[in-house]
Amino acid sequence: MSVDEKFSSIRKGMLEFLLLKIIAADKVYVADILKQLSGTEFATQEGTLYPLLSKMRREGLLDYEWKESEAGPPRKYYMLTPKGRAQLRETSDYWQKINATIKGLGPNSA
Amino acid sequence: MNKVITINLNGNAYQLEEAGYEALRDYLDHAARQLDGNPDKGEIMADIEQAIADKCRAVLGMHRTVVSTPDIKTIIAEMGPVDDGSVGGAGEKTGDSAGAAGPKPAGDAGATGGPLPKRLYRVTEGKMIGGVCNGIAAYLNIDVTIVRLLFVLLAFLGGTTVLVYLVLMIVVPVADTAAAKAAAFGIPATAQEFIRRAKEGYYEGMKTWGDKQAHREWKRKFKQEMRSWKRDFHQQMSENARQWRENWRNTWNRPPHPPASYFVVLPFVALLCTLITLLWLVAFVSFLFTGAIFGLVLPGVPWWGVLILLFVAYQLAVWPLRAIKHSCRYGAPGWYPYSVFHGLWDGIMGLVVLAFLVWLVDRFVPGAHEMLLNLPHTLRHAADSLQQWWSQK
Asked: What is the ipTM of this complex?
C-alpha cells in the first residue's frame, strides 16, 4: 500500500478544513475551489465537493449567494459564516497541535 | 448515424447520443441513490446537473450541437463518483472537524458511470427474519409477499426449506452500504422516479432565476416531495413487515404451547393411524397383485374405481383421528395450519409405533421372523413383477 493510499482517509477528513481555508480567503464558486485544489494532493471532483459543501452549509459553517456570470446561468458563490470562521480557527489550532506532536515524537531529525 | 436524445439538465436542453444518455442516466441514478436520506438531496442533484450542463456547454460550439458519447464519458469521469460523506454518521456532527467528513469504506467501487451489476443481497429494511426473502424479491423484482408465501408453502411441504433459508442467511451478504443496496435492487425505484421527472422537465422550476420568491417556493416544494417519497417508501416497508409479523404470530404460534394432554394422547392416536395406514398399504398391494382386496372382489367396479374407493375409505378412517389430534393439540376443536415442529413430532411418533409393531410381529407371530428376513428379496421380486406387468401393457 503506497503512502498515497494510506493517507486517503486522512485527506478526505481534512478536505473540510481546506475548504474552510479556501473560502475564508475569498468568495468562491465550485470551479474556483476545484482549480485551487487541482495541483495538490487534495485534488477532488464535483461529485465529492457538492455533497460536502451542502453538509457544511447545513451545519451553518458557510452560506452562498447567487451571482450573475457573464456567460451562462448564475453561480453559487460560497462564503464563511461567523460559525465557520470560528471552526476554521479551532481547526487551525488543532492542526498546529498535531504538527507539534508529530515533531515532538520519535527521533528529532524526523 | 446515431439516435439523439434531448434531455433537460437543470432547465437547459442538451442533445446527447443514445449511449451517452444511458451513461449519464446511470450516473445520475447512482448519484441519487448515494444521496438517499440526505436532506439536501434535491439541491445537490440540481448542483450536479448544473455542473454537467456547464461542461456540456463548454464542449459544444457554433458547429456542434450534439454532445457525443466520449464527451459524456469524459464529463462523468471529471465529475467523479458522488459520495455522500455523511452516510457513515447519520447524526450531524458539528464539534470535531477531524472526523466530520466521515470515513467511508474504500471498497465502494463501481460508482462511476457504468450500469449497476445486480447481485443477491439480504435486504434488512422491512425484514422478517434474515431479509433473505426481501433480497430475493429485490433481485427478481417481484413482490416480497409472493416470495414469502412460496417459502412458507415449501416449509409446509418439507423442512428442507427451513434449512435452505438458514444456509442463505449465512451465505448471502447483507446489503449494508449504499452501493450494495443499489446493487441489490439494480436500479432503485426512487432514482428511477427522479430520472422520469427529470425527463419530463420537472426542473423547469429552476428557470425562475429572476423571481427569487418563486424560486424559493419551488425549491421548498421540491424538497418536500423528495422527503415524502422517502417517507412513503419506508412506511410501506415497515407496515408490510409489521403485518407479516402479526399474521405469522396469529397462525403459526397459536397457542404458544400445545396442552400436555397432546403428548399423552398422541401416541395412541399415532398407533391407530399407523395401523390404518399399514392396513391400507396391504390392501393396496394385495389389490395390485391379486385384483382383490383381502380376497374380496368387487364385481363391476373398474380397477381405478377400486383405487379411489380405497383412498376415500382411508381418508374417512383417518379423518376423525386427525381431528382428535388437532383438538387436543390446540385445546379446542377447529382448524389451524399445521406446524413444522408438530409435524416432526407426529412423524417421530409414527415411526416409533411402526418399529414397535414390527418388533411385536417379529417376536410373537410364527413365521414372521423369516418373512421379515426375506423382506428385501420379496420387495425386489415385487418390483420385478411390477416392471414386467408394466412392460406388458
From this structure: 0.79
